[in-house]
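User: I'm preparing a small set of examples for a lab meeting where we compare how different chains pack in three dimensions. I only have the primary sequence for this one, and I'd like the structure in token form so I can line it up with the others. Please keep the answer compact; I'll paste it straight into my notes.
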Amino acid sequence: MTLAQQIYLSIFALQHIRGTIYSPFPGWGMLHVNHLAQTVKFMIEHLTPDTVFKCLSDETRARMTLLIASEGELCVCELTTALEESQPKVSRHLSQLRSCAILEDRRQGQWVYYRLHPHLPDWVHDVLQVILNANKRWLSPDAERLERMRDRPGRATACG
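Assistant: Understood. Below is the structure token output for the 160-residue chain.
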């Protein structure tokens, strides 16, 4: 299935889940979705080291990307707890990482979860893994806060 078809099916599924003909992209047909998919594909295929490092040059973005790479997927509330940052700041940085095609989000009810973009080139995954392995101590306070959050009985209500 092409990326365009995946996006189109996601929009179609969203419409049926909500039981309406609501579209997050009013008036968009397959042509528009195909253009969006081609844009994302172009961004990922032309992801260069300077782009990746610019996206990760901010400490907050670097920390959240490494946490997500380590955990696989995290929601906004988990990141705000782990990083001890406000939700607007975390959301702004997540938006920047999404626009760089480093991260992808998915919605589940009112919650938004972030993961590494599934079409990231292998070399980006390799770089992130090397950075993770070499900097466990730097990231450990964030990882410990995240782990403590998981031990709390209220986690299910805090993060959906």
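A couple of notes for your slides: Residues 81 and 125 are 25 Å apart (CA to CA). Residues 12-23 have pLDDT under 50 and may be disordered.

User: Perfect, thanks.
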